[in-house]
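Re: that backbone. Tokens:
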């Protein structure tokens, strides 16, 4: 399954968007993912998502873990893998996915809002490397534009992200390499998809990262 942004070969996103803007854009993307999840019905949690093999419940566990992990990285504790563990949201444990996700959202947004985050060093175990905060926030931002779309498709919602947010995410996405050894089974991304001329920035971003922009309900940004 592809997880947008988790490829440490991605070029630095600060070349296209300033660090304060990236933090603001990231906030908007994360809040949109939460807004869409609040519309999830009881039978939505076990529906398949555009992330191959993942139900919405499984996707949200991943999203929550990444929020906690990136928050820890922003505060100097990213190397501690306990922050990256996914919560068990299976039915038998009685965890409420939305509450778990809400908590993780509050945690990461508070961490990213602290002074000096763009200049801090983020240790990201999934990448096996460390990155300046301005780069790490770009990875996180791209992830949550894509995951907000994943959620919208799954719950039949509408993705409400302004054009400038989607354009910024596209600029980051286009820096993800497309060479075959970095795409496909076992890689962070599926092979990029071809699109006809005239497609908008959301479709282009998704296709570049290996998503099918016309999957399911195909929500559009507005």
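Recovered sequence:
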């Amino acid at each position: 399954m592809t997880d947008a942004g988790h490829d440490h070969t991605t070029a630095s996103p600060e070349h296209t968007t300033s660090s304060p803007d990236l933090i603001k854009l990231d906030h908007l993307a994360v809040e949109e993912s939460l807004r869409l999840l609040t519309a999830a019905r009881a039978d939505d949690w076990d529906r398949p998502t555009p992330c191959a093999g993942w139900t919405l419940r499984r996707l949200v566990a991943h999203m929550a873990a990444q929020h906690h992990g990136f928050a820890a990285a922003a505060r100097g504790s990213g190397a501690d893998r306990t922050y990256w563990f996914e919560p068990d949201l299976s039915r038998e444990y009685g965890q409420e996915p939305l509450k778990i996700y809400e908590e993780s959202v509050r945690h990461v947004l508070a961490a990213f809002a602290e002074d000096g985050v763009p200049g801090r060093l983020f240790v990201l175990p999934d990448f096996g490397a460390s990155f300046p905060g301005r780069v790490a926030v770009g990875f996180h931002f791209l992830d949550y534009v894509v995951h907000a779309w994943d959620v919208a498709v799954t719950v039949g919602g509408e993705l409400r992200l302004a054009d400038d947010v989607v354009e910024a995410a596209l600029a980051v996405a286009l820096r993800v390499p497309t060479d075959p050894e970095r795409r496909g089974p076992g890689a962070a991304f599926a092979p990029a998809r071809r699109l006809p001329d005239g497609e908008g920035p959301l479709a282009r971003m998704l296709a570049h990262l290996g998503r099918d922009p016309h999957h399911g309900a195909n929500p559009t940004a507005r």
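Residues 133-155 form the longest helix (23 residues). The chain has a mean pLDDT of 85.
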